[in-house]
Amino acid sequence: AWTVFGSPAYNEWADQRSWESMVRFLEEAFGETVYESRQPDSTMVEGFSYTDDFDGKALMGYVAKPDSSLWKSPAPAVVIIPDWDGVNTYEQERATLLSKYGYVGFAADIYGEDLQTDLDLDTRIEQATLYRGDPSLFVRRMQRAVDVVKSMDFVDGDKIAMIGYCFGGTGVVQYAFSPNNGDVMVVAAYHGGLQTLPEVTADTIVPYTLILSGGEDDAHGNQTILEEVMNGGDAEWEISRWSGVVHGFTNWANEAAYSIAADYRSWDQLMTTLNELMPAMSVDDFEDAAPPTSSPTSAGAGFSTMLAIASGVLLMVTAVVAI
Predict the structure, then answer these.
(1) φ/ψ (deg, to 5) at 299
(2) For residue 201, how many other CB atoms are within 10 A of its CB?
(3) Deepest in the core among 90, 100, 108, 243, taking most CB within 10 A?
């Protein structure tokens, strides 16, 4: 009865999110929605050199700043953990896109400044295996990126999110499960590898956690186990999957995998969450784009929204999960 106004079980946040999904579903089903690519025409980033203070590894990230004539500073920031081919054009494009929404986008370096572009398959396997096999190293590199971003004078250090793609999607879940997760308010894993879940070493999974996967992506793993683990860590979470959608569905350059509908849906879920929990403020105080009036925290319960595209029609299933 969580959609029944006045009911003790009513959950405003879940009701709002499910209603918005239903509206989008109907728009798609009746051909009222036409998607156009959000891929930026060019990247608008600056290189940012930093080091891993523990081992001295030289790193190179890429920062995209919001237009100061449109957005207030200091601004909230989103750290982007790259996929397994290193931090390159794709992550820089995502950082650029975030800056258009008023967020500082920072494409973080995990492998090192010498391992960013044109990595062959053997190198990708070697590097991804190294970091997946050494959680402390992986988390340390992500934490270093967070620390660097928090130190920027144009960033609101209390409002940091982290998103990751593929290898990076695995990483942000690893980070959320780690003890120092309180530095980040939101994590979002796009087509992350979650077959083998990392151990939860945190007392509480603090960041609001979005899991965004293709319905045909085996890398998603066992969803029941994933939900149990997050509930065990008192997480607030949301899981969305789309049937017929495969691994890598957000990658504009991968024609075989890219799904514009799932890309739009998953990006909108991220932005809705960010706008509620850590909104960017325009110079006119967001008068034309007020964020939602309820949040997962104020609603008092976590929930997951599962979305699926079947036979050309988007089907929606919503589940409320007590925490």
Answers:
(1) -70, -25
(2) 15
(3) 108
Q: Which residues 6+ apart lie within 8 Å of 41 measured at CB? A: none
Assess contact for 95 and 64: CB atoms under 8 A.
yes
Exposure b/e, 133-147, CB count within 10 A at least 16 = b: eebebbbbbbbbbbe
Q: Write the DSSP string, 75-97.
A: EEEEEEE--TT-SSHHHHHHHHH
CA distance readout (Å), 287 to 87, 290, 291 = 35, 6, 10
C-alpha span between 116 and 86 (Å, rounded): 5
Residue pointed to by tokens 């650029």: 96
- Residue whose structure tokens are 């319960």: 301
Question: Left, alpha or beta for 320 (phi > 0: left; psi -120 to 50: alpha)?
Answer: beta
260-277 vs 12-29: helix axis angle to the nearest 10? Answer: 150
Strands in the chain per DSSP E: 46-51, 58-64, 75-81, 104-107, 155-165, 186-190, 208-214, 237-242, 302-310, 313-321
**DSSP line for 240-298:** EEETT--TTTT-TT-TTT--HHHHHHHHHHHHHHHHHHS---BTTTTTTSPPPS--HHH
Instruction: Report pLDDT digits (tens) over 124-157.
Output: 999 999 999 999 999 999 999 999 999 999 999 9
Cis peptide, bond prior to residue 74, ω within 30 of zero: yes
- Counted residue by residue, the chain has a size of 323
